[in-house]
Amino acid sequence: MFDSLRFRNFRLLWLGSVFCYGGHWVQQATLGWVAYELTGSGSLLGLIMGIRAVPILLLAPIAGAVADRHNRRNLLAGTQLIFIVTTTAIGAAIALGALKTWHLFAYVLCTGVAHVFDRTSRQAIISDLVPSGSIINAVALSNIVFSLMRVVSPAIAGYLLVWVGAAGNFFAQCAFYGMGMFTLLLIRPPERAEAPPKGSMWSSIGDGIRHVMSDPTTRMVVLFTAVPFLLLTPIWSTLLPVFARDVFDAGPQALGWLFAAVGSGGLAGGLLSAAFARTERIGWLQIGMHVLFCVSLLGVALAPSLPVALPFVFIAGVAEIMTATVGQTILQVSAPSHMRGRVLSLLQLNPALISIGSIIAGSGADLLGARGISALNGVLALIIGAGLVLASPALRNLRLSHYTRRPD
Question: CA of 130: how far to CAs of 64, 121, 137, 336, 361, in Å?
Fold first, then answer.
């Protein structure tokens, strides 16, 4: 299950991801608290937290082209430096009592830019650090870190706010990013066999887009993985408080149980992804996880009580991470090495879909109720997924050995 950790360079990348994602999730939890305390406005809070989607939408293809042209280890170290500088500045502004609302907007935009380049390069460098037979396991272990930090870090953020205050919390985030940068600088990646793309940056981006549009497997995986981010994942990011308070007639403790179930499911999904790392019919694994995600959401929508809903929420967390992991894995092994960064960068657009999906989920909850919009989204995702699978044989016929030459 932990096969890829045998390789020193990937082990360092994995450890650096612990610190980087730890800092990111502590930042997410703390930023919401600081923003609401400063503004007292729910609308401004939503705008501050949501503006991160702007750099993703504008820069994801550019981040992929940059990752294919330059040293990915150095790009990652550069993003950590941006995190350190901007986070230190916000911590200092809080400590001096000089924090303004526009500071938070600027901070989210700057770190959002760094995050786009960080995620793209962090995914693309995996194939530089492990042999092809270990790529799937390495992707799964990387997503385990992401899920684990998503569960653990908000609790860390809460304790830091109590112990050292908001300013100290931001300085602690700097320590996370500093350790991440230190481990990255210890990596000694091998020389990449392929030459950097020729021509301008824009021609490189165009080449990547043309490859995605012309390759059936890549095109299908990009479309298939986008559906959950638009219709399913926003239910967790938007409507769980509504389920806790209005649907199940419970309080904050119920919300905590729901979030814990999602996070625990995500961690379990990461472990299962590592266990299923060499599944030959990986396309059917992707299809199966999509169906499980949709069905679990329908289970939550129909659950008569919180205890009945929690197992479905846990299963949805499992399916969410496995769906994302398998999709990323397929793109890792199927993309030509000289444009892997450009192909993987398209996955960075998926988080932006969550923002759009959150608007749909929130508006739908007002019209149909939380149960109604959740059931509708689950059915729509199931129908769209079935339509994509029937329209193209790319996922149905996909074999892992086509790319790794290592049949299950």
Answer: 20, 15, 10, 16, 40
Answer yes or no: are the C-beta atoms of 280 and 402 closer than 8 Å. Answer: no
**pLDDT tens across 382-393, in order?**
999 999 999 888
Spatial separation of the C-alpha atoms in residues 67 and 125, rounded to whole Å: 9
CA distance 32 to 48: 8
Nearest 5 degrees, angle CA 292-CA 298-CA 301? Answer: 145
What DSSP state is assigned to residue 248? S
d(CA 141, CA 404): 18
Tokens of 46: 């939503």
Structure confidence at residue 297 (pLDDT): 92
Q: How far apart (Å, rounded) are the C-alpha atoms in residues 156 and 168?
A: 12
CA distance 68 to 58: 18
What confidence tier does 193 reach under pLDDT thresholds 50, 70, 90? low
* pTM for this prediction: 0.75
CA distance 275 to 27: 31
User: Which amino acid is present at 327?
Assistant: G
CB neighbours of residue 245 within 10 Å: 15
Same domain, 259 and 173: no
The whole-number pLDDT of residue 382 equals 95
SS3 string, 50-90, reads HCCHHHHHHHHHHHHHHHHHCCHHHHHHHHHHHHHHHHHHH
Among the listed residues 253, 13, 311, 22, the one whose alpha carbon sits nearest the alpha carbon of residue 150: 22
For 385, the domain range is 201-408
Compute the distance between CA of residue 66 and CA of residue 199 in angstroms, rounded to an integer: 13
pLDDT at residue 403, rounded to an integer: 67
- The span from the CA of 310 to the CA of 240, in Å, is 11
d(CA 365, CA 326): 30
How many structural domains is the chain composed of?
2
Domain limit, last residue, from 170, 193, 216: 193
Q: Are residues 228 and 115 in the same domain?
A: no
The pLDDT tens digits for 28-43 are: 778 877 887 888 875 6
Q: Which of 128, 163, 193 is the last residue of a domain?
A: 193
Query: Cα–Cα distance between 56 and 310 in angstroms, integer?
Result: 32
Same domain, yes or no, for 148 and 242? Answer: no
Type of residue at 90 = I
List all residues 6 or more positions away from 298 whose beta carbon is below 8 Å from its beta carbon.
Answer: 374, 375, 378, 379
Q: Name the maximum alpha-carbon separation found in the chain.
A: 61
Q: How far apart are CA 292 and CA 22, in angstroms?
A: 29
